[in-house]
Amino acid sequence: MDRYERIIALHRTLRAARYPVTVPRLQDELGCSRATVYRDLAFLRDALMAPILGDGEAGFRYDPAEGERFELPGLWLNSEELHALLAAQQLLARSGGGVLSGALAPLQQRIEKLLDEHSSGKRWPVERVRVIPHRTRGMDEAAFRIVCSAVLERRQLAFEYRARSTGEKTRRTVSPQRITHYRDNWYLDAFDHEREALRSFSVDRIGAARMLDAAARDIAEAELDQHLAGSYGIFSGAPKGWATIVFNDRAARWVADEHWHSQQQGRFLADGRYELKLPYSSSRELLMDVLHYGADAEIVDPPSLREQARALLALALANYDR
Q1: If you count DSSP H runs as helices and E runs as strands, how many of each does the chain have, helices first?
Q2: The WCX domain covers which part of the protein (predicted)?
Q3: What is the number of structural domains in the chain?
Q4: What pTM does this model have?
């Protein structure tokens, strides 16, 4: 068994023992050497603060007054789990532009301490985790923290919002529902009290955020999923229709493995092309993603979406005719 399993087994044995347990017995139960038993006992006592009594001659057991109350710490993971957790922390810290690094610093220190104890003093090479942010937008960290607090504390939120599409600046009072991380950026899903409807707000466009004393209005999970996740992309609203896109055999090798939407329907055609169908509400983001594939993709249906793609391609081509 590995060290993690040995510590668990050692804890259970000492906790259940009415009399001191000898080192040879521990060697037999744990399947390890005498030196390993002593190292595990020292780790359990010194690092995990177990109330161990005894010595190598008489044997070891937990202090009867404290042993029943002692539990292994909640963050007690094996080396592989610690590696994965620290890698995830690096991913969040690096991809979030530092927004979460301050909040996660205490957790990272605890993880690194446990990892050092697992790895016999070897330094874990954090630089081996490489995260390349893609089109990440700058964000007010103070506003981000207030938005997150309002979501978790279930309180209403007031803020100024500058729409990216029009540049118009408005005041909003909302009941936050969810904070969403989508394509390296953060969005607030909320019930807008003035418009009496669910809306999604890009957090980097939120300013002068202020958490209010009033309790947030809770929207049922089913309604949130139907409105916010029913259509393609980040744009909310009930689906207006289904789009059918066909990718040539070269692009099919990528698209067939991609997740575009929870309700997508995909199949390979007889000639090797790949047909993808998915619901959409706003055509804007869907068109951008399809046009990203250039000549490898064709919108087949509906005709209105196909015509929008044709118009966008004509405008793009006109830029090169000057």
Answers
A1: 10, 11
A2: 241-314
A3: 4
A4: 0.61
Contact 285, 234 (CB under 8 A): yes
pLDDT digits 0-9 by tens, 224-251: 887 776 665 665 567 788 999 999 999 9
Q: Cβ contacts of residue 304 below 8 Å, gap of 6+?
A: none
pLDDT in tens, 169-186: 999 999 999 988 887 778
Is residue 239 left, alpha or beta, with left meaning phi > 0 and alpha meaning psi from -120 to 50? beta
Same domain, 107 and 164: no
* 187 domain-assigned: yes
Using the Cα atoms of residue 273, residue 274, residue 275 and residue 281 in order, give the sign of their dihedral.
Answer: negative
Asked if 247 and 297 sit in the same domain, the reply is yes
Cα–Cα distance between 61 and 17 in angstroms, integer?
6
Nearby residues of 151 by Cβ (< 8 Å), 6 or more positions away:
176, 177, 178, 179, 188
- The two three-digit tokens of residue 71, written as one number: 């539990």
- DSSP labels for 55-77? ETTTEEEE-TTTTTT----SS--
As a whole number of Å, the CA-based R_g of the chain is 28
Phi and psi, residue 75, nearest 5°: -90, 70
Spatial distance between the Cα atoms of 286 and 79, rounded to a whole number of angstroms: 42
Phi then psi dihedrals of residue 255, to 5 deg: -65, -35
Query: How far apart, in Å, are the Cα atoms of 25 and each of 2, 29, 51, 56, 84?
Result: 18, 6, 20, 12, 34
* One domain for residues 202 and 259: no
Asked if residue 284 is part of any domain, the answer here is yes
* Residue pair 194/173 in contact by the 8 Å Cβ criterion: yes
Domain that holds residue 92: 79-128
